[in-house]
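User: structure tokens for Peptidase M48-like protein, please.
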Amino acid sequence: MKRYVARCTPWGTIQTGDFFRSLTATEKAAVMAHETGHIRNYDTLRRLWWFLTLRVFWDFEWVCARCREQELAADAYVKEQGLAHGMRSFLCRHPQPRSAFHPGTKERLEALNG
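Assistant: Done. Predicted tokens:
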């Protein structure tokens, strides 16, 4: 079972998980744009590099901050594509808590609205 909505890979593809099917068409478009934003910014390759160079171990807080920035930048790409409404809907229907690597729903909604 693929217990995620969608994710991008270091080789530039997007994988959708089991939860992707439950989204509306607008939410699907926004989620795909978010993942495309990660690909356009080479985010997965950067994260892989941070892991391979062990930076994630000796500069954990820096890596966490950069990952949160990457998430907000991917949301900004969604907004640029005119799909902010779909991302807002997704975030409201599927709230996400803040973690070391991800901003929470409130922060993401504020960035989308700003």
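User: Anything notable?

Assistant: The two ends are 36 Å apart (CA to CA).
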